Amino acid transporter
Amino acid sequence: MSNEVGKTPSTIEAGKPVRSLTLFDGISTIVGLMVGSGIFSTAGEIQKNVGSPGFALVIWALTGLLGLTGALCYAELGTMIPGSGGEAQYLARGLGPMMVFLFNWTSIIILKPGTIAILSVATAEYMLQMVVEKSILEDKAHAVFYSWLTKGIAILCCIVVTLASSLSTKWSNRIQGVLTLGKIGALTLVICSGCYFAIFVDSSVIKENLGEPFKGSVFGFGLFAAALNHGLWAFEGWNNLNIVAGDLANPQVNLPLGIWISMTAVVALYLLTNLGYYSVLPMMAIENTSAVGIDFGLRVFGRVGGILMPILVASSTFGSALSSMVTSSEIVLLAAQTGQLPAYFNKVSPTFGTAFRAYWMQGVISCFLCLFTDFNELIMIYTFPTWIFYAACVIVLLRLRLTAPDLERPYRVWLSTPILFLIACVWLQVTSLYAEFRAVSLSFLAVLVGIPLYYLFVRPPTVKGEANSMPLMTHK
């Protein structure tokens, strides 16, 4: 971030937008932010909740389809309400300033720090399993000690991410670029070596796993919701192109096309990666690990793989945490500039040119979440409010279909698409509450707290049309 606070890549001296992102840049944005810790850390949880490889693959395909459905709704919103800003822009247009405040409030206290916390815990688990034997970690006598050790490493990751971001955004971005190679390398390694193992080394594993793919399947609303939430976390990031749509060349064409290509690519990539897991590891081995990459590496490459895979995965998750931390500062800065946070946080370091107070605010909240929650609770705490606001944006789409039918829509989805997406959102929220009542209810309560805060501390617009001119804020 430069010292020119609030100036985006799409702004030049004359105030005219510069369409600097190509279709390839847009695809890279979505794929780069979607592929993070999920595919490496949630495969075991999904398998455990559904009981069979076939059902697990269905969950991966279903959550990918659900993400695609939401992304296509966002494609219509992004071409109908052009410019950068994403959710905040659509909520301001369709539901008013209070919803914008609730979105920003939730982003600051849950969504952004929750993302960093989840990625930090995933990094910690891989780092710990790289140096400690799995049998020792699974020993119940040491369970409490290693649980707290994982939390401690995760908090250390949060601190390092915060420190790196607050010292230099430029170098933080460079580190992200280098670490992106780790996630690409890890997925490529799993897919290619899994195919080689199944064809030339031992085909019995994949035959056992996929010979009767749905054998042992279990179904329960709570288990199904938990599996869906883990899958949806892995696909998080499909909304990111809308956030920078103002910088996208020919957005009327490239926005929906970029969404279609990137979502299809990621769904295929995730399914192939899971097939790689099932080609090498028995079903029970996948169920009983939170770091499937390590087991995979040990099985295929021996001790070398047991070291290489966690390094690649940890670099992937750490890089994603850096990316999330860098973008979170915009929310805090703009919230402080518009009176939604104390002006204390509207400060850019004259030495480093970074929003250091914004970064450390998010870092502290991330550490707090790591300390008092486990990985599964973090997933639920993050996913529940995220899909509330996804649903709210789709409600805006439907409302504008009724109230502004003549509004130009370069890309238009079938009416059934947003309706089915809303039904899925409601069903997901209800079942999530049933599956993890404590975590979800606390998350929902945190969102609701924003309502009295809005009326107490944020002056409602008094000028007609002011709601739609509020500064726009973004999240992941």
Remarks:
- The mean pLDDT is 80.
